[in-house]
Design a protein that fits this description.
Layout: H1 2-23, E1 25-28, H2 33-48, E2 53-56, H3 63-71, E3 76-80, H4 81-88, H5 97-105, E4 109-111, E5 121-126, H6 127-132, E6 150-152, H7 153-157, H8 162-169, E7 177-179, H9 181-190, E8 195-199, H10 204-207, E9 210-212, E10 225-230, H11 231-236, H12 238-245, H13 253-264, H14 270-282, H15 295-330, H16 332-347, H17 350-361, H18 367-390, H19 394-402, H20 407-437, H21 450-458, H22 462-490, H23 493-501
Parallel strand pairs: 1-2, 6-7
Antiparallel strand pairs: 3-10, 4-10, 5-8, 5-9
Helix pairs in contact: 2-12, 2-14, 15-16, 15-18, 15-20, 16-18, 17-18, 18-20, 20-22, 21-22
């Protein structure tokens, strides 16, 4: 019966998701400010055309939203022609927009014309450092191997960036750090690094008074902003395609710099900045203009998302882990295998586990995050259940056998109650770990407390980081307190008194 209920609930969840996806245009964006603004612009112009649209924000680097587009998990997202040709299509030669369009069409993807600006990569330095070393171009960096370079992680890994920039300019620097892009700016300010990658439309170039080095070998191609969308969107939502095509050639470079500045320097929400731009440019009145999103409202929404991920993953793990712990205790050889597998899963870094799960469970939404949390919950519960059962004194087990109790009855009435303290401790450990690890769900659009933390890092806003970090810490303490209180009702009183007298 329990299995039938779980299957029915999962089927209903899938059906609801499919219906929602069929009626709504799903817009994606990458993890940096400009992409989120462009995603909000697309979402709002589609809504204005009378088509429901949902924005999946901050989906990581290039590969995540691209794969989501191919898999049909999102319908549209903003991208750049240079990234498409060199990173996505892995072309070794520059591609024209016509060639890019033709190659994308073979994969069922279409591309708008340029939105009106070229956001190319560049190398930026603090102006005083550039003046000190007489550095004006990227070629000049080759004369100063002592300079400390730090680039965004995506810039380090992309074929069109550091991997090809270094041999093209014969740069001698070898100790190059990979950083989050927004943290790289902080490192530049504090002098921890001397140069980093920047975007030509980045508002921080002006606010930090950075010197942008001349790309004298013309290494970086043009990165004209466009929207990519699935070919089937044209048939399903023709008005949505017409809406985003309306944005072609409508945003120039200075306007994009201003939009980025309003978010990063004035700390305005991306949705509001996008709405004000559309009102000024096209007379579109978006609901985001009047939306008042208080901190309390945001925390309540993130708490619901966080609790959903933690609760589903924890309950699922309890259903699976405790029986596995019992099997491990009853069958020692099989138990070694079970504990070994659970231990291996537990040692996989959480971010890497999410990446491993994406091809199986998709990219956006709750499911990959819930599965990852479920897997991390297994080891503490299996191990504590196993330990609690095998540590029961032999005399008690022999007395139960002497009474003629069947194995299942001994397990239910004697062994599990005696091991209840250890089992509950394992569940409590898993719950606290889940609360902390669930913040990574924001990387794949699952929300939770990780959302304000990621946004705070991106916007260099300590209050936003604390908006996610403090509730996460408080929730972990509350969960721990709830489980400690529940011991009074779950663990037999005699065992609790024995543990207290032992100082445990």
């Amino acid at each position: 019966m329990r299995n039938r209920i779980c299957v029915s609930a999962l089927t209903l969840l899938v059906l609801v998701s499919c219906v929602s996806a069929a009626d709504t245009v799903r817009v994606g964006s990458k993890v940096f400010t400009e992409s989120i603004i462009l995603g909000d612009i697309a979402t709002q112009v589609i809504n204005d055309a009378g088509i429901p649209a949902d924005h999946k924000r901050q989906l990581g680097g290039t590969r995540i939203p691209w794969e989501a587009l191919l898999r049909g998990e999102i319908d549209i997202y903003p991208e750049y022609t240079g990234t498409i040709s060199q990173e996505i299509l892995a072309s070794k030669q520059p591609m024209s927009e016509a060639q890019i369009r033709e190659t994308l069409a073979q994969r069922g993807i279409r591309m708008t014309r340029s939105l009106g600006f070229n956001d190319t990569y560049a190398i930026g330095m603090r102006r005083d450092v550039a003046v000190k070393y007489h550095i004006n171009s990227i070629s000049d960096l080759a004369m100063h191997p002592e300079l400390r370079l730090g680039f965004s992680n995506e810039f380090m890994d992309r074929a069109d960036c550091w991997r090809s920039l270094r041999p093209a300019y014969h740069l001698p620097q070898t100790d190059v750090k990979g950083l989050d892009h927004d943290l790289a700016y902080k490192a530049l300010q504090t002098g921890s690094i001397d140069a980093t990658d920047v975007y030509s439309t980045d508002a921080k170039i002006k606010s930090l008074n950075l010197a942008v080095l001349i790309d004298d070998l013309h290494h970086f191609p043009e990165y004209n902003a466009v929207y990519l969308y699935r070919a089937d969107v044209q048939a399903r939502f023709p008005k949505a395609v017409a809406a985003i095509e309306r944005m072609e050639s409508q945003i120039n470079e200075s306007e994009m710099v201003d939009l980025n500045a309003r978010v990063e320097l004035q700390k305005l929400p991306e949705s509001k900045v996008a709405a004000e731009f559309l009102q000024h440019k096209f007379g579109i009145n978006s609901a985001a203009l009047d939306a008042v999103d208080s901190r309390t409202t945001r925390i309540i929404a993130r708490t619901r998302e966080h609790l959903f991920m933690v609760a589903i993953s924890l309950v699922s793990a309890i259903i699976v882990a405790i029986p596995l712990g019992i099997v491990a205790a009853k069958r020692p050889r099989l138990g070694q295998i079970i504990l070994a597998i659970a231990s291996i899963i537990y040692t996989i870094p959480s971010l890497a586990l999410l990446v491993f799960l994406i091809p199986i469970f998709g990219i956006t939404g709750y499911l990959p995050a819930i599965v990852a949390l479920f897997l991390y919950s297994l080891l503490p519960m299996i191990r504590n259940t196993h330990a609690g059962l095998i540590e029961i004194p032999r005399g008690i087990r022999e007395s139960a056998e002497a009474l003629g109790l069947p194995p299942r009855t001994r397990l239910r009435l004697i062994e599990l109650p005696l091991a209840s303290g250890a089992i509950l401790s394992g569940i409590k450990t898993a719950a606290v770990i889940n609360v902390a690890t669930a913040t990574l769900g924001a990387l794949i659009g699952a929300g939770g407390y990780g959302q304000p933390i990621l946004t705070g890092i991106r916007l260099s806003s300590t209050p936003l980081v604390l908006e996610g970090a403090i509730p996460a810490a408080l929730l972990a303490l509350i969960v721990q307190g709830i489980f400690e209180l529940s011991e009074r009702f779950v663990v037999p009183r005699g065992l609790r008194l024995k543990a207290e007298s032992a100082g445990l």
